[in-house]
Design the sequence.
């Protein structure tokens, strides 16, 4: 029988070398958290956060490659703020949320848009469109002991030097505290879980050979390419 050990699980890269390694847990993602993105996707703005999951096996890091799967002919980029949970929690209030946060990172939610469109048309779940290997590029974790306001961070993404997405997390429909409190009312959050808080408008297609650069204010950046 094969046994999986904690050290075999993918681990975050930290911006502080003194931080002990932390395994990447479940990845909880949000849809339609920016009004203009909901509009460009011809979708209604939700009353509550809309959640879906990605596997930890989708994670890649700075300098690595997004691989276009054979099953898809249309990949889209989506730049997002990621929040890493630092300790187990359930049914927490908005006021205590940040006590359970380990840090923040820059993330890309790569989407096989053609697969997602087909799933939506047929009323199917669209986890396949989000779950391929390499579909969750992330930066190093910025530990919370730095002064970071997650509700006022600039996000941007460029492809081959051309700016495509730019927004501030203050434009999200739900605050980071509201998002985490809502998720904790549904599922237990554990140390190492990653919450990807949704993307602003400007999502677009990626092609083989593209170079993608994303930035989170002046705090961190993420560079990946497509093959």
Sequence:
């Amino acid at each position: 029988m094969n046994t999986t050990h904690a050290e075999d699980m993918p681990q975050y890269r930290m911006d502080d070398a003194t931080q002990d390694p932390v395994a990447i847990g479940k990845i909880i993602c949000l849809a339609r958290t920016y009004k203009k993105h909901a509009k460009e996707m011809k979708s209604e703005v939700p009353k509550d956060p809309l959640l879906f999951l990605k596997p930890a096996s989708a994670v890649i890091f700075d300098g690595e490659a997004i691989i276009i799967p054979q099953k898809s002919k249309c990949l889209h980029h989506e730049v997002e703020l990621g929040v890493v949970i630092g300790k187990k929690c359930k049914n927490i209030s908005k006021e205590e949320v940040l006590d359970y946060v380990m840090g923040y990172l820059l993330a890309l939610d790569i989407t096989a848009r053609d697969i997602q469109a087909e799933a939506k048309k047929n009323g199917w779940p669209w986890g396949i469109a989000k779950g391929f290997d390499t579909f969750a590029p992330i930066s190093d974790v910025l530990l919370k002991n730095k002064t970071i306001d997650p509700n006022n961070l600039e996000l941007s993404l460029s492809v081959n030097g051309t700016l495509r997405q730019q927004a501030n997390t203050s434009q999200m429909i739900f605050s980071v505290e509201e998002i985490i409190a809502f998720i904790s009312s549904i599922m237990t959050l554990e140390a190492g879980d990653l919450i990807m808080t949704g993307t602003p408008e400007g999502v677009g297609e990626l092609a083989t050979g593209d170079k993608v650069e994303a930035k989170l204010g002046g705090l961190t950046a993420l560079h990946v390419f497509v093959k």
Observations:
- Confidence is low (pLDDT under 50) at residues 1-6.
- The CA atoms of residues 75 and 206 lie 6 Å apart.
- The chain has one domain: 10-81+93-226.
